[in-house]
């Protein structure tokens, strides 16, 4: 299982993310050629291997020519990304990151999301940072990205609105919709930007302490400012064995129709649940209700939580980690006089169990006119 750990000891910005990904091994030529699929001119990726505070890493920034300094609305940005020839996965991730920035700006400036007018954040370099991060993410295909506490800096930052407090209002709103702890230490200035925080909030899972995994390599992406301390995002890449720990997410509802309940299970399984099921319960005021249980990997937690809160009538949910034991499973085909049957084999220690796939047994029973019992007995003789 591939792990990336974003160590945000001096915050995170779009440039720092791209720099760290390139330092980790993403080819800048590949990145630029993918970005050209946006069909917009006026930019170049400048990635330079360099040293800061004696540490080698990569400084990456987007170089814009005159055409690049456009102001855009969220609608324009959505159109550019959707109409590009990037993969659907990259488009989906980039749009989700941008939406976080747009929702935050809408809230801060009290305008509808679609009409958010990006001056700095919407400038071409943010599009490049966000789409670039999505490209790197889908190229590396991590199973999980962990994110540390974020050192956001302190003081004031000068931007198009004037002098704003750090973290900037947009950054703060993005953080309010994420689940990352923030702090400020040793940095006078803005170390976490809206773009950087939105990327981490979308791709990452917060971890208050260093996660347990086997580190394999590191990438340092330098920021452009000099804060006196090392201004870099460090991504540590590593691996850990397949999770034997999964999450259980639960909620109770008593005011959904049966049709809605069925739909919710379909959505949950589509959005990454390992299993999802209902148990009948009696709730307050003796109301018959349903208890929803969802099993999922930690990396799918935010998608599962979102589905439950969006698609059910619940006002909250519970979640907790559980250990699981999985038997090793594989398949083999056997030939019988009535046709091929796939056997599912499950093993654990000295336990060995072979079971015919139900759909194969059913098909043979229907085609031969025999009962399911007779077909099962017949299969036993040929396995
Ligand atoms: O462009 C806008 S509207 C803007 C809003 C805010 C608010 O907090 S509101 C902040 N900023 C600042 O712009 C720069 C660029 O940010 P990136 O995420 O594009 O790197 C940064 O200093 C923001 O705090 C812009
Ligand atoms: Ni703003």
TrEMBL record:
It comes from Acetobacterium paludosum. The lineage of its organism: Bacteria, Bacillati, Bacillota, Clostridia, Eubacteriales. This is Pyridinium-3,5-bisthiocarboxylic acid mononucleotide nickel insertion protein. Its EC number is 4.99.1.12. The gene is larC. Involved in the biosynthesis of a nickel-pincer cofactor ((SCS)Ni(II) pincer complex). Binds Ni(2+), and functions in nickel delivery to pyridinium-3,5-bisthiocarboxylic acid mononucleotide (P2TMN), to form the mature cofactor. Is thus probably required for the activation of nickel-pincer cofactor-dependent enzymes. It catalyses: Ni(II)-pyridinium-3,5-bisthiocarboxylate mononucleotide = pyridinium-3,5-bisthiocarboxylate mononucleotide + Ni(2+). Pfam families: Ni_insertion. It is an enzyme of class 4 (lyase). The keyword Lyase applies. Belongs to the LarC family.
């Amino acid at each position: 299982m591939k792990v990336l750990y974003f160590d945000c000891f001096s915050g995170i910005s779009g440039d720092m993310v791209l720099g760290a990904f390139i330092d980790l091994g993403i080819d800048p030529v590949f990145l630029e050629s993918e970005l050209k699929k946006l069909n917009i001119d006026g930019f170049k990726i400048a990635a330079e291997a360099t040293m800061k505070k004696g540490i080698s890493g990569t400084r990456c920034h987007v170089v814009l020519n005159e055409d690049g300094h456009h102001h855009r609305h969220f609608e324009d940005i959505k159109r550019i990304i959707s109409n590009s020839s990037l993969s659907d996965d990259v488009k989906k991730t980039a749009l989700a990151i941008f939406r976080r920035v747009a929702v935050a700006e809408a809230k801060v400036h009290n305008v509808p999301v679609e009409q958010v007018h990006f001056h700095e954040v919407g400038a071409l370099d943010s599009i490049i940072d966000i789409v670039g991060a999505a490209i790197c993410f889908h190229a590396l295909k991590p199973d999980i990205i962990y994110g540390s506490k974020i050192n956001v800096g302190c003081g004031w930052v000068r931007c198009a609105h004037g002098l704003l407090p750090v973290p900037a209002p947009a950054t703060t709103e993005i953080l309010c919709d994420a689940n990352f702890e923030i702090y400020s230490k040793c940095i006078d200035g803005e170390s976490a930007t809206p773009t950087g925080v939105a990327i981490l909030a979308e791709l990452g899972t917060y971890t208050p302490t260093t996660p347990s995994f086997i580190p394999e390599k590191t990438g340092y992406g330098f920021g452009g400012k000099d804060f006196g301390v090392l201004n870099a995002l460090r991504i540590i890449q590593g691996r850990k064995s397949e999770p034997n720990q999964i999450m259980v997410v639960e909620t109770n509802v008593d005011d959904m129709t049966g049709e809605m309940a069925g739909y919710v299970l379909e959505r949950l399984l589509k959005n990454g649940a390992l299993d999802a099921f209902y148990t009948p319960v009696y709730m307050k005021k003796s109301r018959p209700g349903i208890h929803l249980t969802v099993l999922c990997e930690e990396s799918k937690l935010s998608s599962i939580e979102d589905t439950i809160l969006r698609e059910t009538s619940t006002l909250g949910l519970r979640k907790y980690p559980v250990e699981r034991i999985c038997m090793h499973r594989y398949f083999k085909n056997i030939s019988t006089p009535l046709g091929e049957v796939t056997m599912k084999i499950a093993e654990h220690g000295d336990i060995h169990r072979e079971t015919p796939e139900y759909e194969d047994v059913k098909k043979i029973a229907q085609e031969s006119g025999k009962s399911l019992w007779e077909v099962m007995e017949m299969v036993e003789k040929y396995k």
